[in-house]
Amino acid sequence: MDALDLHVLRTARRWLSDGYGVWMVSVAATWGSAPRPVGSLMVMRGDGALEGSVSGGCVEDDLLVRMRSGERMDRTSLLRYGVNKEEAARFGLPCGGELLLLREPLADHAWLDAVLMAADRGELIARQVDLSDGSIQLLPACRGDRPVLNEKNFTQIFGPQWRLLLIGAGQLSRVVAQMAQLLGFQLLICDPRQEYCKEWQDLGVQFIDGMPDDAVLAMQVDSHTAIVALSHDPKLDDMALLEALKSPAFYVGALGSRRSSAARRARLALFDLSSDEIAHLHGPVGLYLGCRNPAEIAVSILAQIIAIRNGVVPGQSLLTTSASVSCV
Fold first, then answer.
1. What does the alpha-carbon distance between residue 126 and residue 203 come to, in Å, rounded to a whole number?
2. How far is the C-alpha of 50 from the C-alpha of 301, rounded, in Å?
3. Per DSSP, what are the bridge partners of residue 270?
4. pLDDT of residue 159
5. 41, exposed or middle or buried, with CB in 10 Å at 0-12, 13-18, 19+?
6. CA–CA separation, 113 vs 100, rounded Å?
7. Mean pLDDT of successive 10-residue segments in the chain (328 residues)?
8. pTM of whole model > 0.90?
9. Does 185 lie in the same domain as 82?
10. Is 325 inside any structural domain?
11. CATH number reported for the structural domain that contains residue 314 in this entry
12. Judgement on whether residues 110 and 175 belong to the same structural domain of the protein
């Protein structure tokens, strides 16, 4: 689950506790080009405050106008935008874009508490809204489930924030961490080397000064976790990989050239890892972009992580090219 969605839900919960009237709007369906994907959220407060986004433009302004006019605000309803070119232009939608939004008054915070607690536990949960009466049912969900709209219900999927564990606290890790936070990842850094532990407090990441294998075990890796070894020390990187490759992490990568990556795979094969587990390793890490500096390497790493997270097979990676990321 995106950090933004969790923030929207936590904001709604806080506003309800403070006694405000609160409405939630979700993107239930899209046709053509759409500025926000299905499942995107925003919440509106009775005094006009907003959090989140369903279009990033004029649709939000129109929703506020509707709220202030009291248009059917006491019941769950569907709103359609962009039914013709004129309306699409008016609301700043891409050419041919159309949105179907679900608007709900929020009165009971019990489902919010349940969803947020499930996310904190690393669990996925489906929220099913009855379109006829607005009643809500919470159901178990699995990774890969997507929001679904039918004639009777709209079902959203909520879950834990995406996490990224970096092994090694060097310059490249710092750049990766800064970019990953902008992408909504919760960042954890592990490095037992004391000389690398300074000046991380200002980045708002969780720093782990223990051994990498212990860090992987302690964080209770789930399918919303990515782990990347960047320490340049084979002992530290391999310790992390021995546990990471046996975990449900959706992405495991390690920095290095083609030669050092082949040597790493040979070392890992000496331990209790299967060939399938070793094949899960992305090494050399990242997409091949002809990288020349830490920022470019960070982009290549995060681009590959995002592609894998989104179920996209990258067209070209370091595993299929003669080039390699140079160590930094």
1. 33
2. 33
3. none
4. 84
5. buried
6. 26
7. 82 95 94 80 93 83 87 88 66 69 92 91 90 94 86 92 92 94 90 79 80 92 93 92 96 94 94 94 91 91 93 57 35
8. no
9. no
10. no
11. 3.40.50.720
12. no
pLDDT at residue 321 in the model: 36
- Contact assessment for residue 54 and residue 44, using Cβ atoms and an 8 Å cutoff: no
What is the number of structural domains in the chain? Answer: 2
What's the pLDDT score for residue 93?
64
Asked if the structure places residue 254 within a domain, the reply is yes
**Do 110 and 171 have their domain in common?**
no
Domain that holds residue 172: 163-320
Residues 6+ apart with CB under 8 A from 225: 162, 163, 164, 165, 219, 247, 248, 249, 250
Q: Are residues 243 and 309 in the same domain?
A: yes
Q: Is residue 251 part of a domain?
A: yes
Strand order in the sheet with 163-167: 206-208, 186-190, 163-167, 225-229, 251-254, 281-282
> What does the block give as tokens for 45?
């407060």
163-176 residues labelled b (16+ CB within 10 A) or e (exposed): bbbbbbbbebbbbb
The pLDDT value recorded for residue 238 is 95
- 103 and 202: one domain? no
The pLDDT score that the predictor gives to residue 201 is: 67
Q: What is the pLDDT of residue 94?
A: 59
What pLDDT is stored for residue 148 in this prediction? Answer: 93
Nearest to 289 by CA among 264, 319, 258, 316: 316
Are 107 and 167 part of one and the same domain? no
Contacts of 307 (CB under 8 A, 6+ apart): 287, 313, 314
Closest CA to 43 of 57, 63, 28, 62: 63
Length of the chain equals 328
